[in-house]
Each structure stands twice: as C-alpha cells, then as structure tokens.
Design a protein that fits this description.
Helix content: under 10%
Number of domains: 2
Structural class: mainly beta
Shape: globular
CATH superfamily of the largest domain: PHR domain
CATH class of the largest domain: Mainly Beta
CATH architecture of the largest domain: Sandwich
Radius of gyration: 23 Å
Length: 276
C-alpha cells in the first residue's frame, strides 16, 4: 500500500497542472469609427467592450479624451460599456480606454482619433451596415402587439445608395414592409418581405440614392408588434462611418406611416445598408 501511495503521489507531482489565468483586462472600442468627423458641442455616443480571457471579472472600464491626463468611469454593464462625450473644442481628439478587474488596472488598449468639427471621410467597404461594429446591449422582445412602423433616422457623409436594411426580430416573425423616407416624409422606396426568425436582410430591389447633408428614415411596418427594442441607446450621436445618427434616432408610429415619435432614446434595430 505504501508503494502504491508513493506511486500515486509521484504521478500527481509529475502531471502537468493548468496554470491559473493571470488578469490581463483589455478594453475594445466599436464606435465612433476611426478618423470620423463629429460636430462640436453635440453629445457623442461611445460604445465598447472589455474582456479578461477565461478569468473574466471585468469590474470597470475607464475612458480618457485628453491623452490619458484624466480618466472617467463609463457606464459598464459586465463586459459592455457606453459613454456619452460632448466635445467642446475643435480639432483632433484621441479616445483612450482601459479595463479593470478587482486586482488589476489593465494597460491602455484603445487609442482612436476623431476630428471635432472636421470634414474627414474615412474609407469604408463598398457595402456597409449601420451597426457593422457594435457591442450587444440589453434588448427586450417587446410584448406590444399593435400595428406599428419602426425606424431609425440617419444621414450619410458621402454620396451613395441605400440598397436595403437588416432588422433584428422580436416575437413577431411574419411578413413586414421595408421603407425609406425623406426627412419630410416622402416615401422613396417600399419592399414587402416574407417572415423570418431572428435577423433578416431585406433588399430594396432598386438602390435609393442618398446625399450627404440630408436626413433619411429607414423603417419597417409590422402589423402586430412583436419587435425588438433597446431603451436608452441613442442618448448621443452615433458616428459609424458613413452613417451619422442623431440623439433619439429611433422612431415609431402606431398604425403605420412616416414614423416621428420617440420613446426613451429607443433603438428598434433597424439597420440601413449603404453602398458606395
């Protein structure tokens, strides 16, 4: 028995044991996109994430807009975070971020420059989505069962076309009608689409030309509600090149038609698709 116990002890000592993962928190940034130009004195929505490998345990994410001289805590939800920054000085601003765990302040892992009051046109793919880069936010499958038009207000920073939209589905999975409107409510395109589960891309068939400086509304009509919504999302401008969405960009209208009503800065996950 002693020889067996000694053999077992030797096996334990010689067997490789997995090392405990060391804390190495990393911050990421999804919006605004790099080198984008944003207006002066208007709230800008900054969205990012953080991770710490298998160890997890992100406790805080801090952001700096003065080259690391001062740091401010963000609205961190587990490994997601948001921050509203109102730039008050024209010129380049570099956004930096770092993540914390209970025992470690991570290094600066985000450094992204934007241009306040500028006219930059960062490159984009030939086809791009509004939420091409975003961190998932807490969303709700709304129990509302009324007929409603749900949309998003947006402008673009360069000439191009809107070729379609992507929607994230709630409980209603039946047919919908996708639409594009001018800022004054002129219907520019409409396309019926069959039902689908979860997400759905809807192409307009004929691309809708869009011009910088003009606002457009992209929406869809659901005859019995059942949509996805995220409140307190559009609390600042979203600068996701080439799209620029204002505060309270999410809009709706019960019964259908041109949507102009807003509620708690809601996002209904209507995602226009731009083609240059």
């Amino acid at each position: 028995m002693r020889r067996l116990a000694a053999l077992l002890l030797a096996l334990v000592l010689l067997s490789p044991t997995p090392a405990f993962a060391a804390d190495s928190p990393q911050a990421t940034l999804f919006s605004p996109t790099a080198e984008v130009s944003v207006p002066l004195d208007e709230p800008l929505l900054v969205i990012g994430g953080a991770y710490n490998g298998e160890a997890g345990g992100i406790t805080e994410v801090e952001i700096s807009t003065d080259d690391g001289a001062t740091w401010t805590s963000t609205d961190a939800r587990s490994e997601n975070w948001t921050f509203v920054f109102t730039p008050d000085t024209p010129g380049p601003v570099t956004i930096k971020a770092r993540a914390h765990t209970a025992s470690t302040v991570g290094p600066i892992t985000v450094s992204r420059t934007i241009h306040v009051g500028g006219t930059t046109l960062p490159p984009v793919p030939s086809e791009t989505f509004l939420f091409l880069q975003h961190i998932p936010q807490p969303d709700v499958k709304d129990s509302d069962d009324q007929a409603v038009e749900l949309g998003v207000r947006t402008s673009v920073d360069r000439p191009g076309s809107l070729v379609g939209m992507h929607i994230r589905r709630g409980n209603y999975t039946g047919p919908v009608t996708a639409k594009v409107w001018s800022s004054t409510g002129v219907l520019l395109a409409a396309r019926e689409a069959p039902g689908a589960q979860y997400g759905q891309r809807i192409d307009f068939g004929t691309p809708v030309p869009v011009a910088p400086g003009n606002e457009y509304v992209v929406s869809y009509y659901t005859p019995s509600g059942g949509y996805l919504s995220t409140e307190n999302y559009f609390v600042g401008r979203l600068a996701q090149t080439p799209f620029h969405t204002p505060v309270n960009a999410g809009v709706y209208r019960y019964g259908g038609g041109f949507p102009t009503d807003t509620w708690n800065a809601g996002n209904y996950w209507v995602e226009p698709i731009f083609q240059s």
